[in-house]
Design brief:
- It is a single chain.
- The protein has about 90 residues and is mostly helical.
- It starts with a helix and ends with a helix.
- Helices cover about 75% and strands about 0% of the residues.
- It has a domain at about 1-55.
- The protein is built from four helices and no strands.
- It has helices spanning about 1-30, 30-55, 70-80, 85-90.
């Protein structure tokens, strides 16, 4: 259900952005279109940065900040932590 709300919200933002560009062209010409488009790009970048920051603070594993984010990295960390450096390099 939450994904549907995000899709509707994204669609509304897209329609609003398109209308803003059309209105900018009608009332201000090409220069205002560039200004509106630049503002839209900046807003999208800020939104992506906010979402990335929120996801970056989530801890995916119970191991804390040193935990691996995926199974492959967890196995590599176990290999490096469990044995000597020679053991980890010996498989290459």
């Amino acid at each position: 259900m939450a994904a549907r709300g995000v899709r509707v919200e994204g669609a509304l933002v897209g329609v609003a952005a398109a209308l803003a560009v059309v209105l900018a062209y009608v009332f201000g010409g090409p220069q205002l279109v560039w200004i509106v488009a630049a503002a839209e790009v900046a807003l999208v970048m800020l939104d992506v940065a906010r979402r990335f920051r929120v996801r970056g603070h989530e801890q995916p594993s119970a191991e804390g900040p040193e935990g691996a984010h995926c199974e492959r990295c967890r196995r590599a960390r176990e290999r490096l932590d469990g044995g000597s450096v020679g053991d980890a390099v010996g498989h290459q």
